[in-house]
Amino acid sequence: MLKTFSWQDFLLAATLLSLIWWLGIWLLYYRNTCAKNLVPLAHSWSEEVDELEKESGLMGKAVLEQGVSVVAAEDFSFGMPVSDQGKQLGDLADVQEEVKSICGILAAEDGSKEDFFTLFEMIRNKYPKIASSPSLDSLNVFIRDHVPFALSEEELENIWA
User: Fold this and answer.
1) What separation in angstroms does the CA of 76 have from each of 82, 107, 146?
2) Residue range 30-63, pLDDT digits in tens
3) Residue-wise over 73-111: b if at least 16 C-beta within 10 A, else e?
4) What's the 3-state SS for 78-111?
5) In this structure, are residues 80 and 93 in contact, taking their beta carbons and an 8 Å threshold?
6) Structure confidence by residue, pLDDT tens digits, 107-159
């Protein structure tokens, strides 16, 4: 099959393919240099380019959701400061602490129910808002668990009256 081609045919085909190849190279790489009215784009290393601020982005700064704030690591903690713990616990914790101390005194000195009621009257006078508190039932259960003697339901209800 190759015997049918002559040297003239081969040289003509090689020349045409070479011209097509070099025309493609010229179109890809050298076409822009021949066009005189095209201006090349400025690069970041040239002084003609305006640099955007890195923080703002194209649309501006992102807005945080409502209630979200950015704090430093030393300002972040999971608990209240020691000075605010008393405010956090409230009257219920104070009453429970006083009941514990009264029960400790009664257990140490073999106190009776009457002694408990007289000592508890000071707590009731000191914290009058607790009698109308919604956590009164849990406080009554706490008292029943910590006193060194048995208290009936009537006695627990009358203790706040």
Assistant:
1) 14, 43, 37
2) 776 666 566 666 666 666 555 555 555 566 677 8
3) eeeeeeeeeeeeeeeeeeebeebbebbeebbeebeeeeb
4) CCCCHHHHHHHHHHHHHHHHHHHHHHHHHHHHCC
5) no
6) 888 888 888 888 888 888 888 887 777 778 888 888 888 888 888 888 888 88
